[in-house]
Amino acid sequence: MKARPSFIDALRNAVLPVLVVMLLGGCAGVTRSGSGAAALPPAAAKPKQPALVPTSPPSDLGAVERFAWQQVVQLGDAFASGDIGGFLSRVSRGFYRGYSALELSLKALLENSSARAAVVAVRLVAEEEGRVSVRAAWTRSVTLPDGRVDARQGETVFLFLKSDTSLRLLDYRGDAPFGIDGI
């Protein structure tokens, strides 16, 4: 009597040939040349990620946490409007990664751009050990002098000292805020 194949064996025998054909078929369009080659979809046909939507603070958020939330949103607004002074006014002079490095990088990016946009979606606000952290996803775009658009997205945890009544940005974790290189 012949043993019945297991479910895994049956699945493997059914799916594996289909995957091989799909992979080889996809590769054929890339490696063959001439009139019989399969056309690759244009780069614009890549699936787009859903647009980031700004968020509003929940009603049960404490005053300090709400203020930290607003500070992050206002950093994004200042970036989008090209307001270098407004952006830097929300950053501590004791910024751990170097206030002057941030200032130079921000000026180089924003002063040499013709258009800017930024969207901030706060995901979480937490208070611990005298600090307030705000985790936010963001997207931004900057039009460079040659007309190219530098678009970036990321997720940053913005860190503020709670004892600083103005809650200026002291440090961050994750992606550099708004993709500002050099900090």
What would the keywords be for this entry?
four-stranded antiparallel β-sheet; 183 residues; 25% strand; Nuclear Transport Factor 2, Chain: A; alpha+beta; 4 strands
Provide a descriptive summary of the structure in words.
The chain has 183 residues and is α+β, with helices and mostly antiparallel strands. The chain has a domain at 63-179: Nuclear Transport Factor 2, Chain: A. 34% of the residues lie in helices and 25% in strands. It has a 4-stranded antiparallel beta sheet with strand order 1-2-3-4, with helices on one face. β2 (131-143) and β3 form a beta hairpin. The longest helix is centred in the N-terminal third of the chain and has 25 residues, at 7-31. The chain is globular, with a radius of gyration of 24 Å.
- What is the 3D shape? globular
Oligomeric grouping of the chains: single chain
Stated plainly, the CATH topology of the domain at 63-179 is called: Nuclear Transport Factor 2, Chain: A
Task: Report, as a whole number of angstroms, the end-to-end distance.
Answer: 71 Å
SS element count, helices: 4
Task: List SSEs in N-to-C order.
Answer: HHHHEEEE
Work out the number of β strands.
4
CATH architecture of the domain at 63-179: Roll
Structural class: alpha+beta
In the sheet with the most strands, the strands line up as: 1-2-3-4
Radius of gyration: 24 Å
Fraction of residues in β-strands: 25-35%
Low-pLDDT residue intervals, each spanning 5 or more residues: 6-47
- Strand count, sense and closure of the main sheet? 4 strands, antiparallel
Q: Helix amount, in percent?
A: 25-40%
In round numbers, the mean pLDDT is 80
Give the C-level CATH assignment of the domain at 63-179: Alpha Beta
